[in-house]
Amino acid sequence: MRFVIIAGTPSSGKTSVMIHTIRHLLASNLSVAACKIDCLHTSDDERYRRLGIPVAVGLSDYICPDHFYVANLEEVECWAREQRADIVVLETAGLCHRCAPAVHGCLSVCVIDCLIGIDTPKKIGPMLSTADSVVITKCDIVSQAEREVFHNMVETVNPQAKIMDINGLTGQGAITLKNEIVRYNSLEGISGKELKYPMPAAICSYCSGETVIGKTYQMGNVKKVDFGGEN
Amino acid sequence: MLEQITVLGGLDKKGSPERIRSLDIKAGEVLAVIGPTGSGKTQLISDIEQYGEEETLTGRRIVIKNQQDTGKDKDLPRYLVAQVSQNMNFLIDMTIEEFLLMHARVRAIPDPRETINNVLETTNQLSGEPVHLSTNLTQLSGGQSRALMVADVALVSNAPIVLIDEIENAGINRLQALEILTGQGKIVLVVSHDPTLILMAEKRVVMKEGGMESVLQTTPEEQKMLEGLLRSEKQINLLRDYLREGRLLWQEFWCTVR
Ligand SMILES: Nc1nc2c(ncn2[C@@H]2O[C@H](COP(=O)(O)OP(=O)(O)O)[C@@H](O)[C@H]2O)c(=O)[nH]1
Ligand SMILES: [Mg+2]
């Protein structure tokens, strides 16, 4: 089974791109299962279900969605194997940009749209720089010139990645991602594999539900802003 | 430098081989891609864009002939097809000058100053309303944006193929735009329902149910008709200008402008 991880900025077109890509995979008689990890709510499962494939949803609720995601990778793998999937697509919510979901042995795809601004690729951080493939969407509404400059910015941040333009509305370009997935190695088992980029330590009182502001309510791993000057 | 691309026929939507088995497009040529919505125009363009994929939906193959053919992919530009369409906008909040310099740097153009001056000049030839290097991109009108896009694609972008997708007839001299692009040795693909733009192409490929159905050369008779169409377009533009200037039209207007 090939394990595909989809991350990206909010509303960049992750689900739209994957729907087109999965259609191509299904047309080649490959079986696909999709899982969506989100925080409080998602309706992406409905969209994946319309493809007639097995779909699962994990909501992290009061837990950090990225930590929740890592803690559930074995379970997702196990579920997808039960579905007899050749390919499992795991879409993450990708929220704070500090974490990167990429795991060695899994194809990690980062989806960003070219409307976010030319300097934004530099700010996205490890989610973009650790991806194996980068998909750029919404190129249908910007000038070719901006598209070329944006592409270059992405390449500067992640020179190793295969960068492709896909139109999430029409699916134009999705065959390239499909071929990339088909070419990718099968995963023996996810247990023991490593995250490409460690997630931040964050066990403080707010992680476990504290809501009141103030030093006396803060415990655990707390870091303060350094305003410079003498303390 | 790209010399020619050949599209080798694949399958149509019903899975039967498309009628046209081979279509050559040479540098400096304009090809119109026509057919009703859903007939496969976008798919044909996509296939050309994704020339590197061994597997496509239609089973078409794209063969690229370079002047110095080294047979290596890396010698091909990052974008084989550059696009200019009605839906595209400049979104960056920057002056034309700043942005063109940035694009020229990304493209490693040896003399960026000279190039951006040429881009500006070409832009102003194509659009009636002149822009300046200090004009902000977000302030451009539809026609000015389209003109700048064409000039930039012709002079800065190195994509050897340009796709013109449904560009409006107002605000940009389309015949001149095509001349500038083909003059740079580009292959121009025009997707349009507009008779003027279709007849400006030397030949047209007619799409039907996902397949290339026929390839037609523009006949001398059609070229005559194109002249008529261009004339009436000019008249309409003139009419527009007159009305915008607050003038009254007179009965013999048509005869006068002819
Ligand atoms: N114009 C345009 N819109 C797109 C494109 N890709 C996605 N969208 C739109 O962007 C919105 C967010 O897409 P969605 O797939 O839900 O993004 P996700 O949150 O990253 O999964 C939807 O309204 C899509 O229709 C694209 O390539 N071009
Ligand atoms: Mg989504």
Describe it for me?
The complex is a heterodimer of chains A (231) and B (258). With 231 residues, chain A is α/β, with parallel strands linked by helices. Chain A has a single domain, classed as Rossmann fold, CATH 3.40.50.300. In chain A, 30% of the residues lie in helices and 17% in strands. In chain A, helix 2 (44-49) links the parallel strand 2 (32-38) and strand 3 (55-59). With 258 residues, chain B is of the alpha/beta class. Helix content of chain B is 37%, strand content 20%. Chain B has helices at 41-49, 96-106, 112-126, 142-155, 174-183, 195-200, 220-244, 253-257; strands at 2-8, 22-26, 30-34, 61-66, 81-85, 161-165, 187-191, 203-208, 211-217. In chain B, a hairpin with a 2-residue loop joins strand 8 and strand 9. Chain B starts with a strand and ends with a helix. The mean pLDDT of chain B is 87. The interface between A and B is medium-sized, with 23 and 36 residues. The site of magnesium ion has 4 residues of chain A, from helix 1.
Summary, kept brief:
The complex is a heterodimer of chains A (231) and B (258). Helices cover 30% and strands 17% of the residues of chain A.
The rounded distance between the terminal residues' Cα atoms of chain A is 55 Å
The largest beta-sheet of chain A arranges its strands as 3-2-4-1-5-6-7
Mean pLDDT level of chain A: 91
| Shape call of chain B | globular
Into how many domains do the coordinates of chain A divide? 1
CATH first level of the domain at 1-80 and 159-218 in chain B: which class?
Answer: Alpha Beta
How far apart the termini of chain B lie comes to 42 Å
User: How many whole angstroms does the radius of gyration of chain A measure?
Assistant: 19 Å
Annotation field: number of helices of chain A: 8
Largest interface: A-B, 23 and 36 residues
The molecules bound to the chains, other than polymers, are:
guanosine-5'-diphosphate, magnesium ion
Structural class of chain A: alpha/beta
**CATH fold field value of the domain at 1-80 and 159-218 in chain B:** Rossmann fold
